[in-house]
Amino acid sequence: MAKTVGVEEEFLLLAASGEPVALAGKVLAAVGGHPGRGSGGSLHQELFQTQVEAATGVCATLADLRAQLHGARVLLAEAARAEGLDLVSVGTPVLAKAVPVLSEGERFARIGNLYRGVIADYQSCGCHVHVGVADRETAVAMMNHLRPWLPTLLALSANSPFDRGRDSGYASWRMVQQSRFPGSGVPPWFDSASAYERQVDRLVDCGVLVDEAMSFWLARPGVGLPTVEVRAADAAGTADEAVLQAALTRALVGTAEAALAEGREAPRVDDQICAAAVWNAARHGLDGPGVDVVEARTVPAARILDRLLAHVRDALADSGDLAEVEESVAWVRRAGTGAVRQRRAAAGGPEAVLEMLRDQTVREQPHPTYRKSA
C-alpha cells in the first residue's frame, strides 16, 4: 500500500504590473474552504501579506493529490482576480520594488524582529511535501537516506531565476536567499529523534531560531504531524510539477524504508559536499554540472536525476506511479524547468514572463497519462 502524501504550496499575489500586493487576508476570506478540507486541506497566510499558502489534505493517490492541488489553485486565482490580482506559483518575484508587509501575528513579528534585513526582500515561495511515516523516530531515520537526493529535487524544481527585475544568473534564487538563514541546506546526519531535537533546541538557545517548530533544513520531521517533510523545491510552476515532487519524495521514503528493513545504513555523505551540491543545483538547475555527493565529484545534473530515478524505480512501480513520473520527467526535460521556461519567455520582456506564470499556475494538466489517471 502506497504511503500517504500531502503538499503545501506557497503563491504570490501580483498586481497587473507584476508587483506583489499585500492583500492575502482579503483573498483568503473570499475563497472560503480548501477543496480537500474533508481530508485536512487548508488555506493560510504566509510570512508576508503578499503570499498565500494552500495545503492539501492527506492523499493516498496522485490523482487525488492532483485534484486538490489544481482545485486550490483555481479557487485562489478566482478570488485574487476578484481583487484585481493574479495568483502565480514562482519561487521569487520577477518584479518587486516595495518593501513587503509582514502578516499579522505574534510569531511573524518575532521572525521579523530576529532576522531583520535577511527577510526584508524574502518573498520566496516553496513547495513542501509531507509523506506519512510511523513515528518521529522513523522520520529522522528516513531523513538520513534522503540527504544525498535533496539537491536533485531542488535542481528539478528550479523556478526562480529573477530577482527584482534582473536575471540573477541562478536557476533558484530562492535557495540563495534561503541560504542566508542559519542551518539552511541539507540537514546533518542524526542517529535518533532525540539527537535531532537536541540540535534544534541548541539552535533555539543560541538565538538563531525563533522556536522549536522552525528550521531551515531541506528535510525535517513534520511539525505536529507523523510525516517526513521535504522542503527542497521551489514553488512549482504547474500543478503537475508539484505532483512530480510529491511522487519522487514518496518513492524516496519508500526506498529508505526498504533499506532500513534490510538493515542498510544511509551513506554518511560529507556536509560540505552536500552544501556544494545545493549550490550547484541552485546555480544551474538541471542544465549544467551537479555534484554526486557520494562520490564527491562533479557530474552532469541530468545524470544525477537519472540515478535518482533508478534508485526509486522499484518504489514507484510498487505504488503504481512509475509511468506518470517517467512521463512527467520527460516533459520537464523537453519543456525545461520553470527557470528555463521563464528565461525563454523573457525574450518578450517581463510582461511575457508574468503572462506565462499566470497561465501555467492554473492550466489543466498537459500529460495524457495524468488525464487518464484522474
Automatic annotation (TrEMBL):
Source domain of life: Bacteria
Pfam families, alphabetized: GCS2
Biological process according to GO: modified amino acid biosynthetic process
Keywords attached to this entry: ATP-binding, Ligase, Nucleotide-binding
InterPro entries, per database record: GCL_type2/YbdK_subfam (IPR050141), GCS2 (IPR006336), Gln_synth/guanido_kin_cat_dom (IPR014746), YbdK (IPR011793)
Gene Ontology molecular functions: ATP binding; glutamate-cysteine ligase activity
Gene3D superfamilies assigned: 3.30.590.20
Tagged with keyword NAD: no
Reactions catalysed, as given in the entry: L-cysteine + L-glutamate + ATP = gamma-L-glutamyl-L-cysteine + ADP + phosphate + H(+)
Enzyme Commission number(s) from the entry: 6.3.2.2
Keyword Ligase: yes
Family to which the UniProt record says this protein belongs: Belongs to the glutamate--cysteine ligase type 2 family. YbdK subfamily.
Protein's job: ATP-dependent carboxylate-amine ligase which exhibits weak glutamate--cysteine ligase activity.
Name of this chain's protein: Putative glutamate--cysteine ligase 2
